[in-house]
Design brief:
2 copies of one chain form a homodimer. In chain A, 32% of the residues lie in helices and 18% in strands. By secondary structure, chain A is an alpha/beta fold. Chain A folds into 2 domains: 2-132, NAD(P)-binding Rossmann-like Domain (Rossmann fold), CATH 3.40.50; 151-346, Rossmann fold (3-Layer(aba) Sandwich). The first copy, chain A, has a 6-stranded parallel β-sheet with strand order 8-10-7-11-14-15, sandwiched between helices. In chain A, strands 3-2-4-5-6 form a 5-stranded parallel β-sheet, sandwiched between helices. The longest helix of chain A is centred in the last third of the chain and has 15 residues, at 309-323. Chain A starts with 11 loop residues before the first strand and ends with a helix. Chain A binds chain B through residues 136, 142-146, 201-207, 209-211, 235, 237-246, 248, 266, 269, 271-272, 287, 290-291, and chain B through 136, 142-146, 201-207, 209-211, 235, 237-245, 248, 266, 269, 271-272, 287, 290-291.
Chain lengths: 348, 348
């Protein structure tokens, strides 16, 4: 989607292109951020930096900080998570090397770069920034509820972690392919790194959450689309408030409801049954009408990663028949995705 | 309600009794916090401190810091707000005098005590604390959705600023009068000052808001009541997320819906029609069922402050007839309030 995620918005602005730092990780599951950047911002990633002992690769060129800088890199992004979110001491020499080379550091870790002894002073010496993607935006406004110009799509879900980010990225890419003026609006750490800007909704103080969401998708040309990465779920016992703030502040014209077939309970909350797709559609429309009475559901995004191709196609077709609206797995693409994009544009 | 608001909970703990600082305010509307403390925590307020030029009084004994200290005061509370939330330079000598006398300072102002030049060092010298009631709690947990023991009531509303705090305080006092084991659980600045503890829900980071609400009303004896001060409104374009986090995290057995007759649009959001009481009851029960399937609405609290006595009584009776549930103005008390408390206990 190229430039679809870039632009001037309130919140973070990350210096691109990136060098992806993978540390000494041996577990691919910890490198989701790096893989996401490779898949969705590849033209803005000059290469990867793996420490000795590391066994995970994105397949991008292996570069040290100086080589990356020579190829135009402006930041080194920590593309791996660790259990607990800590930054291990073994990474420090590489972080210091990047700073001395003049690369900004970008981190979405729970533990902050600024808490690593000596790093703040070193960064000041070399005039580079330590950018913590989990830091909340400063001074977001109180929500106003004022209707803004332009069109907005928000991905919502029956639960967390079932494809809201990649659904939004795919929809933004498909709208761009059709020649539309579109931006992906990021609300989480990985999405922000992909887009190069955005607002970490989970880090905003509760009273300002809807206001921060309003700021994320400002007034735009009437034909412009903002495709907003959803967070949480209205049905989640911990995160429903974030989801509602984002729904109200985004005032979407269109929602796409994301779901994973076979998931029966909320992630990490086995006492909570997953809502049905129908319930998720109904509640998002009911509550979303408060700030946009014209809200509609244009489709359902099914995460069929656990299914074989035939099984996935059957599940998608059956759900579309049952609901009477387009259903697709964005990562599988194909005619189903085309129909979902038609549906997004159709009633707009 | 005496001790109904006191107790060990996560969040702030304020040293009581208080000396109420009124500054040089001439506008009673700015002294709502001081009046709230006088009305609801009078036995924990030794007196008031008014600067020369001030023209607002709570009627409590006029004391300087040393006199208040001699009468047992442990903190001086800034009981006035200013337009803009600033702390004017004319107040500084009195704040410094209180510190030198050994009183902690408690403030709910937007501008922080710690930003007044020299005050942090002075407080350290005299071993007193600068307690900022707007500071968010440190490290609240993620919500779990686990059902806790004990009984809970949450005041909710059709809008902000129509009586959720005073309804909760009144209900807690009435339950205590009937001999029940009850605590008022504060979620806003004035409520926290009255209770001496609580959690400023508006200052919690969005991802932790439901978790902070869970922590506020921990497991308790099966017959114990926590009466929780509501915040915002599920219908408010800026604050619905906070209201939903508090509803989910509080998992109330009972809600009381607060409303102001005659208010037709949301406070500060004239483009947003106020929901009806019926809509507010329905949506709070619908969404509250997610964490407590047994949730019920036991009554409606009408803020009839703008009406004469006869008019208020007619409005209360008419609304009770129409809805078929108890309706009362807690500040007017009387048999209507008794019926509402009966309703709270009746189905529990």
């Amino acid at each position: 989607m190229n430039q679809a995620g870039l632009g001037s918005v309130a919140g973070l602005e990350l210096p691109q292109p990136y060098l992806l730092f993978l540390g000494d990780t041996t577990e691919p599951g910890y490198a989701k951020t790096a893989f996401g950047l490779r898949d969705w911002a590849r033209e803005r990633c000059v290469g990867e930096y793996v420490l000795p002992g590391g066994a995970v690769s994105t397949g991008l060129p292996s570069l040290n900080a100086a080589e990356a800088k020579a190829r135009g890199a402006r930041s080194m992004v920590i593309g791996v998570a660790n259990a607990g979110g800590a930054i291990p001491p073994t990474w420090r020499p590489a972080l210091e090397e990047a700073i001395r080379t003049g690369l900004h550091l970008v981190s979405g870790m729970h533990n902050r770069l600024r808490d690593i002894p000596g790093l703040v002073a070193l960064a000041a010496d070399y005039n580079v920034r330590l950018i913590e993607v989990r830091d909340p935006p400063s001074d977001p406004p109180i929500g106003t509820g004022r209707k803004r110009t332009g069109k907005r799509l928000l991905t919502v879900g029956t639960d967390c972690a079932l494809g809201k980010k990649y659904t939004a990225l795919t929809v933004a890419r498909e709208l761009a392919r059709r020649g539309l003026d579109v931006r992906f609006r990021a609300t989480g750490q990985t999405g922000i790194m992909i887009a190069g800007c955005g607002t970490p909704m989970d880090a905003v103080v509760a009273d300002f959450a809807a206001g921060a969401a309003e700021l994320l998708s400002p007034d735009a040309h009437p034909d412009h689309w903002d495709v907003i990465e959803g967070q949480g779920s209205l049905f989640h016992p911990a995160y429903a408030g974030v989801a509602l703030s984002l729904l109200h502040g985004s005032q979407p014209d269109v929602v796409v409801v994301c779901h994973e077939p076979g998931r029966t309970v909320m992630l990490g909350h086995p006492g909570y049954a997953l809502p049905t797709v129908d319930e998720a559609i109904a509640l998002n429309l009911q509550l979303g009408r408060r700030t946009n009475p014209a809200i509609r559901c244009a489709g359902v995004s099914l995460n069929t990663g656990a299914l074989g191709t035939d099984e996935a196609e059957r599940a998608i077709a059956a759900e579309s028949d049952r609901l009477g609206i387009p259903v697709a797995d964005p990562l599988r693409g194909g005619p189903a995705l085309d129909r979902m994009v038609d549906g997004i544009l159709g009633g707009a």
